[in-house]
């Protein structure tokens, strides 16, 4: 059975973006060792255009063949013409307001995202990457099998939380911690079931 992994960037104080959800500022903290690791181990989590830019678009998907994201996460690239941001993955956007995506490679899930994720988990293939955002992470928190948290060395004070899930104790087991130049820490947790 495939896993749902929430791989996300966060500040030290647990925010995945500023109050509007913008998070481009995290990129300034990655140093060469971080990017080399990222390109080698998680190349499919870079948008298709970024993969081309860095010359790694020929690298195979290692962990994920599917991504699921909320509407706001998807819409970040639309003004730049990125209608299929992860064209090297199966792409799903969860939205009750978006009738259909402007690109046929992107499928809109308008109802029951939990049920759809459960169906995807039963399929053969690589794992499923929950790309963002906070509201969708809250809806899918009980389906998360793994958390991969990229913590950047900044303190925001407020912003978009890691998830809008409501209070409950959900136990995870620490699998690994990797630190990189520039102060970036990659922490992986598995769901304790």
Automatic annotation (TrEMBL):
Pfam families xrefs:
RibD_C (PF01872)
Q: Which residues form the Bacterial bifunctional deaminase-reductase C-terminal domain?
A: 4-186
Q: Which SUPFAM superfamilies match?
A: Dihydrofolate reductase-like
PANTHER family from the xrefs? Answer: 2,5-DIAMINO-6-RIBOSYLAMINO-4(3H)-PYRIMIDINONE 5'-PHOSPHATE REDUCTASE (PTHR38011:SF11), DIHYDROFOLATE REDUCTASE FAMILY PROTEIN (AFU_ORTHOLOGUE AFUA_8G06820) (PTHR38011)
The protein here is known as Dihydrofolate reductase family protein
**What is the scientific name of the source organism?**
Streptomyces monticola
């Amino acid at each position: 059975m495939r896993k749902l992994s929430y791989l996300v960037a966060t500040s030290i104080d647990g925010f995945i973006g500023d109050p509007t959800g913008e998070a481009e500022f995290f990129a300034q903290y990655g140093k060469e060792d971080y990017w080399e690791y990222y390109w080698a181990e998680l190349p499919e989590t870079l948008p298709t255009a970024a993969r081309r830019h860095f010359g790694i678009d020929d690298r195979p998907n290692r962990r994920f063949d599917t991504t699921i994201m909320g509407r706001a996460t998807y819409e970040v690239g639309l003004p730049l013409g990125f209608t299929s941001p992860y064209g090297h993955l199966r792409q799903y956007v969860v939205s009750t307001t978006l009738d259909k995506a402007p690109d046929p490679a992107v499928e809109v899930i308008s109802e029951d995202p939990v049920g759809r994720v459960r169906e995807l988990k039963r399929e053969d293939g690589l794992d499923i990457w929950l790309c963002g955002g906070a509201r969708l992470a809250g809806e899918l928190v009980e389906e998360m099998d793994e958390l991969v948290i990229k913590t950047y060395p900044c303190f925001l004070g407020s912003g978009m939380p890691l998830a809008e899930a409501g209070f409950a104790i959900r136990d995870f087991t620490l699998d690994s911690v990797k630190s990189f130049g520039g102060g970036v820490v990659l922490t992986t947790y598995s769901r304790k079931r």
